[in-house]
Amino acid sequence: MSLRKNILVMTTLVMMVLQLILILPVSASEFNFAVVPQKPGNQIDLKKGYFDLKMTPCQEQQLSVALTNSTNKAISIHPKIAMTTTNDSGVVDYSPSKKKADETLKYNIADIVTTEKKVIIEADSTYVLKLMVKMPKESFKGSITGGLSLQEDEPEKKVDTQTSGMAIDNRYAYVVGLSLREDLKPVKPELKLNKVGPAQRNFRNVITANLQNTEATYVNQLKVDAKIMRKNDTEVLYESKKDMMQMAPNTNFNYPIALGTGEKLKPGKYTLDISAASYKNKWHWKEDFTITDDEASALNAKDVTIEDNNIWLYIISGLVLLLIVLLIIWLIVVKKKRTEQRRMKMIKYGKHLTIVALLSVTAVATATVPVAAEETGTDYASNGAVEFVPNNDPVKPVDPIDPGKPVDPLTPGGPNPGTPGPLSIDFASSIEFGTNKISSVDEVYYANPQLYKEEGKATANYVQVTDNRGVSTGWDLKVKQEAQFENATAKYKTLKGSVITLNNGQAASNSEGVTAPTTVKSVSLNPGESVPVMSAADGAGDGTWVDVFGGLKKVEIVNEEGVKESVNKNTDVQLEVPGKTPKSAVEYRAQLTWTLSEVASN
Hints:
Blueprint: H1 3-6, E1 7-16, E2 33-38, E3 51-54, E4 60-69, E5 75-77, E6 80-83, E7 85-86, E8 92-93, H2 109-112, E9 113-115, E10 119-121, E11 125-134, E12 143-150, E13 165-181, E14 191-200, E15 205-213, E16 219-230, E17 236-247, E18 251-258, E19 268-278, E20 281-291, H3 293-302, H4 311-348, E21 359-368, E22 423-428, E23 443-447, E24 450-451, E25 458-459, E26 462-467, E27 475-481, E28 499-503, E29 505-508, E30 518-519, E31 522-524, E32 530-536, E33 543-549, E34 552-558, E35 564-577, E36 587-598
Parallel strand pairs: 1-21, 3-13, 13-36
Antiparallel strand pairs: 2-4, 4-11, 5-10, 6-12, 7-8, 9-11, 12-13, 14-15, 15-18, 16-17, 16-19, 19-20, 22-26, 23-35, 24-25, 26-33, 27-32, 27-36, 28-31, 28-35, 29-33, 30-32, 34-35
């Protein structure tokens, strides 16, 4: 029998591709009460929308904030007093934070100002919230700062364990700034560089430099320029520049220097060269630091942008398998040769020996492909009119392309009334990224356009703010992703490293002769960090303003039937989903909080 018949080699390759479709449910939130601070006689500047008070040691004072509920149902609020912090984006946060008080902070405003723990505002009524201020006995220089955070209580949403997908819940908050001063003389800021070392930000490797403001004063218009080199070398490995940052009094934050997508931390000794400037104040430091083998290995293993490179493992495994097959073939050939020699010898002696050797070699290779769940966004509604006198009525949404024209955006459950009050968030688009096939590689998904009741009308996503106070004292709009997308019941509970980015924000209004608010051109959301979206300085931002995120473009997609089609997408509103992140076929949710503030400007 021939060798070909004696050897049976069977190779079976089985590939299983799971294509799960994720549809994003969305929900909208309302801001159902107006907030009007009642400024006392010791207000330093009556034009300021927040409490900026001239105080004395041991002084006790009651402050009032009028909360007006214009709906037909009662509203529950848990007012919170929080110290100011500076987050790792270089943004001052007046909302409650998990950050610890800086070691240089002498007085925490949460110990000085107290208020009611819970407030019920009855339907169609006004409630006057009381704040009690009790100043320290000792005098101080500079400012004690913080914020009164107001947000309507909402019932906890039940997680749908039967639905696959991802949802973003929009919520809205209002913050009134608090600043207490005894001496109005300006305090010179002083920055200090603390610890430098490797870390991670949203599951991406960075090197952080902790900057500390040791004085009781704001550091405004902060610029930072950081470079990292190998120790005793001049070649710049990593670099970061950022401006328009702000630090709160007596706070610190970790300034991040990114390594770059997919780049691993390498053990060794390094030098940080970093400069900072705020107006005429300048600082410069050089600091050596070390990245250990253990630190690099641990952080590299968690970085969602670093791909596991197992090519050499595959090559070695293949070579070993090939050697085994060749060895088997060689043994069979040798055995066949010996058998033939014996047969010839038997024939010579007149004897016959038949040897039948059957050998079956079966190799089965199975390959599994990790699947990457895919996600999408959220929605909310209202309408727009410019007022130049205080007005508590809700303002409806306006057309972002033609801001003088009211529109009716399509939102889940129908349009919601605008946030009441003379300073209000009127509308925030839902952010939906459509239906996409799961991918095991890094993907960037684009948002669906904002649609309207008017058939065929579509625009880019946007957010709308109205300032009808008539005092031109400015305002700030920030957004915070409270936590990463999560589902507590899933095997893989969080979508590690997913990032929402809002690009090319542009301010638009039908107001004439009014200075426009400033928009941030690119906003990447890191869970737990507030980032500015749009802000109006003193004398700016009166009337109704929209911040439009980019524009619409035709994008080719493959629909559920597997057919290619060209559809409108907002390519400036993006969702990045790492292929390396494991996902379960469940609904993941995240919450965006849009906060409108009357606080100290940068």
